[in-house]
Amino acid sequence: MSLPTIFTKFPEGWKINIAKPIDEAVFYLNNHFKGFFDAIKAGLLALLDSVGNILTAIPWWLMMLIVFVVGWRSSKNILKGLTYSLMLFLVGLLGLWDLMNVTLSIVIVSVIISLIIGLPIGILNSMSRNAEGIAKLILDAMQTMPTFVYLIPAVMFFGLGRVPAVIATTIYATPPAIRFTSLAINQVDKEMVEAARSFGATRSQLLSKVQIPQAVPTIMAGINQTTMMAVSMVVTCAMIGASGLGMEVLTSINRIEVGRGFTSGLAVVVIAVIMDRLTQGWFGKNHVREEGK
Asked: What is the rounded distance in angstroms from the CA atom of residue 235 to the CA atom of residue 269?
């Protein structure tokens, strides 16, 4: 005895089409708010050029010296500082120094915007369970969404190039900053918070003088995660015309140039490792300082 069709095949009449209204909404926004998006594009382009010009103006030896000093001071290990500096020197030897600066400018601008957006939202979430619950659903959706999906609206509103790359990277990299900030403030010792309240601390004083200083190590871990996620978008954003090391990797894939792809991929890894170790070292430094109090 065979089952009715409705039990073996999903009914065609029940299907809904959400793609069409989303496309219409995007086209509406793009047509009616073009000036707004052009202004954002111009502002981001100016910021990207400014950061890029600063990076380009820094001599290679000074950049290596900065990485050496920061690596040494944050890890309290002169050998680690020297290793990070030599890794950066390797990128120059591979002939990818200028492309590295382009990539760094995109990553730095994306991380800055992610933190400007993420840290205040994280603080607000820590104050309200309802806001945290709503934000958690949105953040879960953002972090499980395929990264390529972020490229579509970015291209629709801002065209091709570095600006949509910054937009897509910012959307992808912001959730850790929000999650870690909210988690860090909620994990502050309740007795310490109650003690501050008993001494008459206002909400803003409690936040600025007790909760945020105590939450700094975890917030720094969130900044580290945000930075790493921004670096991970380098190659993906090359698909929408973002220049830099990611474009080198993409070009080598298209032309099946294994050596070129390995070289540019190695440079991306070097940048990721250096940024990860420097931010982790800074986190450890602050953590030790907090523990020592």
From this structure: 12
